[in-house]
Amino acid sequence: MAGGAAKYRHLSRKSSHRQALLRNLVTSLIKHESITTTWPKAKEAQRLAEKLITLGKKNTEQSRRSAISIFFTPHAIVPKLFGPLRERYANRPGGYTRVLRVEPKKDDQAPSAILELVDGPKDMKFAMTARTLARKRERGIYSLTELDSMNVRKVTNFRKGGPESLEEAIKKFTLEERKKKHENEEGQEQKPATKSEKGNQ
Fold first, then answer.
1. Domain end: 104, 120, 136, which one?
2. Quick one: pLDDT at residue 2?
3. Positions of the region Disordered (predicted)?
4. Which of 9, 26, 117, 174 could be stapled to 134 by a disulfide with Cβ–Cβ 3.0 to 4.6 Å?
5. Are 91 and 156 in contact (CB under 8 A)?
6. pLDDT for 200
7. CATH code for the domain of 116
């Protein structure tokens, strides 16, 4: 509703417990750059994480104090927020995090998700794009579909090294695919013959 308070998920917790949960999630996110949790928790933690990275980009005494008040271990996390992450996202206007749906480990579990920092070493969309292009190139397909082109733009637009880093990742996955194929072929050659195969010899 216009002019009203922003809507948020209560996460079946009292306000103090909810805030403690979100503080713990964003502390883990900044530290590890990728966390797995439920979809509702990921979406709420994403909102707080975006605000924290914006504070890091402001890089003022006030923004630093605000960030310190949120993290459970500020001495370990704040230097990263106001250092490497501020530099990583200096030219990005927003969208510092991404939420990806994943299958829950058990059927009775709530919808699960991965919350990650984009353009980092654990950027899953970047890795998935590189792996997809590597597999296509192994099949002799070098042209990009409209979806491929869109994904390439998304994962390289603000990433340091952009297209060059994507090419490096593609080469890495290409080598992995070739190694896996070679191991499978060797396994087939060394596989012992079955009784029916021996009878036909």
1. 120
2. 45
3. 175-201
4. 174
5. no
6. 61
7. 3.90.1030.10
The reported pLDDT for the residue numbered 10 is: 58
Sign, CA dihedral 9-15-19-22, equals negative
Task: Report pLDDT for 4.
Answer: 47
Question: Residue 177's domain spans which residues?
Answer: 123-189
In terms of domains, do 184 and 132 share one?
yes
How far out from the chain centre does Cα 47 lie?
16
Q: Count CA atoms closer than 13 A to 169's CA, side-chain side.
A: 24
State residue 5's pLDDT score.
Answer: 45
Residue 181's contacts (CB-CB under 8 Å, 6 or more residues apart) are none
Gyration radius of the chain's alpha carbons: 22
Same structural domain, 181 and 164:
yes
Per-residue tokens: 96 = 């510092």
Boundary-marking domain end, from 94, 120, 146: 120
| Beta pairing partners, 37 | 113
Ranges in the chain, pLDDT < 70: 1-13, 105, 107-108, 191-201
pTM: 0.80
